[in-house]
Amino acid sequence: MIIGLGLPISMRLSAMLVGGETMRAALVSAPGDEALASKVSWQINRIMMILCGLLVPGILLFIAYDIEAGPIITALKWLAIALMAVSTVTGFRRQRKS
Predict the structure, then answer these.
(1) What single string gives the DSSP state of each residue in 32-98?
(2) What is the DSSP code (8-state) at residue 1?
(3) Could you give the CA distance from residue 47 to residue 66 in angstroms, rounded to a whole number?
(4) What is the mean pLDDT of each successive set of 10 residues along the chain, which is 98 residues long?
(5) Which of 17, 42, 77, 89 is the most buried (most CB within 10 A)?
């Protein structure tokens, strides 16, 4: 929640507090600004979904409580590993294109 909600809110608040009226008036939007803002927003939401949906519950279940997982948890664990691998490969491919 801190990353998904707190980070964008704090970034907007700090921009309002630090940048005065004269600075905001001098800023002009470039052609790719809207697309970049959309990408940044999607990345922040993706990080929040992965952390809150996969990593934190996985850490609590497998490390903190040291439980023996049944077949459902084991399948979810492998699904999480596969999703992280796909996310990593997608990130590398996009980075090479840039």
Answers:
(1) THHHHHHHHHHHHHHHHHHIIIIIHHHHIIIIIS-PPP-HHHHHHHHHHHHHHHHHHHHHHHHHHH-
(2) -
(3) 25
(4) 76 81 80 87 80 72 66 77 85 79
(5) 77
What DSSP state is assigned to residue 19? S
Q: Identify the CA nearest to 67 among candidates 75, 59, 55, 76.
A: 59
At 48, list the tokens: 């929040």
pTM of the model: 0.47
The amino acid that residue 25 corresponds to is: A
